[in-house]
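step 4 of 6: structure.
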Amino acid sequence: MISHVMAKAHAGDLWITIQTHPNIVDIAVLLDLAGIIITEDKQIDPATIEKAQSEQVPILTTAKTTFTTAGELFRQGLPGVDEG
Amino acid sequence: MEERRQLTRVEELTYEVKIEQVMTTDVLTVTPETMMSEAKELLRNRRISGMPVVEKGRLAGVISTEDIITTLELGKDVAVREKIGHPVRTCFADEPLAQAIRRFDMYGYGRYPVVNRRGRLVDIITQGDIIHGLLRALEADYHEEETLKHEASYLLEHVDSERTRLFLSYRVRARDFVHAGDAARQIKRALVRLGAHPQAVRRMAIATFEAETNIIIHSNGGRIAVLIQPSAIRVRATDTGPGIPDVDLAMQPGFSTAPDWVREMGFGSGMGLANIRRCASTMHLASIPGRKTCLEYTVIPEKSIALREQLTRSQNDFTRNRRPIIANGKDRPAQIDEPG
């Protein structure tokens, strides 16, 4: 949920989510996130892409699930927010 | 219409820096009675290309290597007086550098004597002096900027006034999720530009986003007002609508009254007010059920923590009967971690 991201994310973090509405870009801007990964090849709202372009927030997509995406990044040596 | 040219910082500096700030001190002079052969030795020993000629404290002319060469061509030594027939162009010490640059452009001499307003020679200025002077000024500029960047907070402190306050106001519409976060984002940007510390900016961004989405989700619309002062950033988020029947219950993390469709969008987790409390230095929430809600919170830049108690006492009438909620119940506001 969005408030949990607000509470946990640090500046420079990468956010993996299944959410696609334009507000995810606001979150990324407010928290200075490095970018957003949208999983399961979910159709992204055109308004979200437009906002991401104007706010310069990179959005990456993947066909994999959120769990697998996080797992792969973790295996590559990227720690999660819990690792601090 | 003529296009207006962008003024560079260097050009700006040529108006800020005065000639007397860049000129060479300890200027070497000769008198009209000095022989050219002697002047030649002085120029050679000092490795300079010209000298002012002074007679009884007053500037009589300038002598340059060019004059020496023409004298040598004549094959006989003469006094400096013979070579300074032309009128001397000078600069005033208190003029801006731009004035000297204009003279160099117009007349092409290698140096100009600098005189004070009483006509007495004080120094000489060369193009090298101008370049060195501008570089020093740019360096000072850069150093000042660097120092500001590393200070704890310099929110609005570049503005000189006895009492500096900036008021921002944003309308928030009910159920307008398309614009959710706009106010928070604009406030964040304003704070960055005004020089707030990154920690204060981050705390304000999170708290304001939560306050903004609360108005969008639960109310019939409202307003977010921000009062920015060097010592503190105060926010008042007001709305009309159903209000909050039990403020203490609403404050509990995880408690939510958001409908399912809002939760499906990722909002309404019941963590909003908890997030605000965590980020704010002080927080007050008051509501008249069935009518309106008023949330006030303050973010105090790290170095202004001493002001917190005073602020807590001076909360407005609307929330006067409420117990103040202090972040973490401790003296310091919650620290939001930044990655190492």
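step 5 of 6: annotate
 - DSSP finds twelve helices and eleven strands in chain B.
 - The interface with chain A takes residues 177-178, 180-182, 184-185, 188, 198, 202, 205-206, 209-210, 213, 263, 265-272, 274-275, 278, 337-339 of chain B (CB under 8 Å).
step 6 of 6: archive
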